[in-house]
Amino acid sequence: MQACQCRQITLSDDILQGFLLHKYRVKNKRAKEGASGGWRFFALFDKGNSVLYPIIVYPKKAWSDAGTDLIKSALAEIIATIKNA
User: Fold this and answer.
1) Total domain count for the chain?
2) What is the span of the domain harbouring residue 16?
């Protein structure tokens, strides 16, 4: 079971390079609308090191969803950073 209503996002391994991509829904207590009116974030999970790297965070009211191109660009940047560290 995943925390915060997390779900794993499926992308090709040439993009994820062995990492896992998760999307989380988090309540916005000030909005009083539950998770549907809260925050969303995408995070890259490095299973080998048990590290979670948040890559995109946004309020649901601002965006209905993060675009595929934005996600792929963020993934490429964070994966390059991780592998060069």
Assistant:
1) 1
2) 3-84
Q: Which of 45, 61, 51, 37 is nearest to 9 (CA)?
A: 45
> What separation in angstroms does the CA of 30 have from each of 9, 37, 39, 64?
28, 10, 11, 19
What pLDDT score does 19 carry?
93
Alpha helices in 10-67 (DSSP H): 13-16
| 3-class secondary-structure state, position 60 | coil
pTM of this structure: 0.79
Q: Tell me: the pLDDT tens digits for 20-64?
A: 999 988 887 776 766 677 888 899 999 888 999 999 998 888 888
In angstroms, what CA-CA distances link 28 with 33, 42, 59, 71? 7, 16, 9, 22
- Residue 26 vs residues 54, 57, 63, 83: alpha-carbon distances, Å: 13, 10, 14, 29
